[in-house]
Design brief:
With 467 residues, the chain is an all-alpha fold. It has one domain. The protein is built from 17 helices and no strands. Helix 3 packs parallel to helix 6 and helix 12 packs antiparallel against helix 13. The radius of gyration is 22 Å and the shape is globular.
């Protein structure tokens, strides 16, 4: 008699064989790796879908509102990624100490990472609020008056929220370092569901536009930080966090964190600074071009859900392998993650391209720009499976092994030489518009990724000892 279990068993055996072959080593097995990836995947999916819905909701307030939010979000990404980079330094050090089995240093490293990120975010917030006018004038002075006024309001509101989201990111970064990704997922869901719910209230029902978005953002980030701290102090036993530990700076541990964090922060500043500069090209093309870029950017994030989750997960996985001094496992897992990422991209493209008319309708764009947005989607659907993973997942892995200087310098050089200069030549000089800017971005992915592949084939990427 043939049963369902009889039919399923060859498939199960084959699946288990493949998982063991590609995702099991001496440091971690496939069950542990899946337990790391899945909560991060769900978290990324929710964050990106929420970002998509938020952009769609603010689009209902008009082209000026969505353009302003898009411009300031470019600046927000530039600034927030500076302290996220330092938090990533904390994740790497915590992961390596976890791999080495040193529980005391795991706890101390987590506390110091949170302290460093909190101090840095407060400094950035104060400076940007003081100099918000000249900053916006320099970057977006050519924008229309209504767009500029909305941008000014949104930037100040964003700055007020920086310390709250920074501490939240530092806490979740430390939790990822010890592979407690379920807790990260729970905390993220609380903060982001609050953000989404308040946006529906303030933007959709009360029609408060950019002001409603600001109130939602600050409220959600304060709540997220408070709950994350409560969880860390009262419920988490692994990190054994105490507020007094974070208030006393330990410069020996901070130095280790900064070895990873500072080059990565510099990379993020200049890398996102280059992206910000490309926004100034787009401003010259007019409000419609800004809107095409904003909507195209939001939709493109959907393609990256799986790959982004792997890019975050690999820091924990490689960090623990290197902490255990097992470079063979690190190499094996990096290759497996790269292949899995490419598969994710193919699957997402197959799912999303047929749904394009429905997805783009969420933004209520002017009819004349819908074909332009679709062209951008086709471009990334074709190129991402081959180029995105080696350009983003691979440097995350190298950085987790301590190879922060090389990855940062490579990213900086390719960003400015290729994406910025080539983007200007193609988009403005040759008149290709937004498509030219995005083609330059794709070319930069390919060249940067090729350099990282070359580095990965050697041995220098894991030769620096952090702990």
């Amino acid at each position: 008699m043939i049963t369902l279990s009889t039919i399923d068993s060859p498939i199960k055996r084959r699946t288990t064989f493949l998982l063991n072959k590609y995702f099991t080593g001496d440091t971690l097995d496939y069950k542990q790796i899946i337990a790391i990836i899945i909560p991060i995947f769900v978290d990324q999916a929710f964050i990106i879908l929420m970002s998509l819905l938020n952009t769609a909701m603010i689009s209902s307030s008009g082209v000026a509102a969505v353009s302003a939010v898009s411009m300031v979000d470019s600046l927000n990404i530039f600034l927030i990624n500076v302290f996220v980079a330092v938090a990533t330094g904390g994740t790497v050090i915590v992961a390596q100490y976890k791999g080495s089995g040193n529980k005391e240093m795991v706890a101390k490293s987590a506390a110091q990472a949170i302290s460093a990120v909190a101090i840095l975010s407060i400094l950035i917030s104060v400076l940007v609020i003081i100099f918000h006018n000249p900053t916006l004038d320099l970057l977006f002075g050519q924008a229309e008056a209504e767009v500029f006024d909305n941008a000014k309001l949104f930037l100040i509101g964003s700055c007020i929220s920086y310390p709250f989201i920074a501490i939240f990111q530092a806490i979740t970064g430390a939790l990822r370092g010890i592979a407690e990704t379920k807790a990260c997922l729970g905390l993220s869901l609380i903060m982001n569901l609050t953000y989404l719910g308040l946006n529906i209230l303030f933007i959709t029902f009360l029609d408060m536009g950019v002001v409603g978005l600001i109130i939602s953002m600050i409220t959600a980030r304060v709540l997220g930080m408070v709950i994350a701290l409560i969880y860390l102090v009262k419920y988490n036993q692994t990190l054994r966090f105490r507020i007094q530990h974070a208030l006393k700076l330990n410069f020996s541990i901070l130095k280790k964190i900064m070895i990873i964090g500072v080059p990565f922060a510099a990379e993020q500043m200049f890398f996102n600074g280059g992206k910000l500069l490309t926004q100034t090209f787009i401003v010259q093309l007019g409000t419609m071009a800004i809107t095409v870029n904003a909507i195209g950017g939001s939709i493109s994030l959907l393609f990256q859900i799986g790959a982004n989750a792997l890019s975050i997960s690999i820091v924990t996985v490689v960090g623990q392998c290197i902490g255990r001094r097992n470079t063979q496992d690190a190499r094996k897992f990096i290759k497996s993650f790269l292949w899995l990422s490419s598969i994710f991209f193919v699957v997402m493209a197959a799912l999303l391209l047929p749904l394009y008319p429905f997805i783009v309708s969420l933004f209520s764009p002017p009819a004349e720009i819908v074909p332009d947005i679709f062209q951008l989607m086709v471009l990334i659907a074709i190129t991402q499976p081959f180029l995105w993973s080696i350009s983003f997942i691979l440097p995350s892995a190298l950085r987790a092994a301590g190879d922060s200087n090389f990855t940062s310098m490579t990213s900086l050089l390719t960003m400015w030489v290729l994406r910025v200069i080539l983007g200007y030549v193609l988009g403005i000089t040759l008149g290709m518009g937004i498509m030219g800017v995005w083609i330059a971005m794709v070319i930069e992915w390919g060249i940067r990724g090729s350099i990282f592949v070359w580095r990965f084939r050697g041995e220098k990427w894991y030769s620096r000892k952090l702990i």
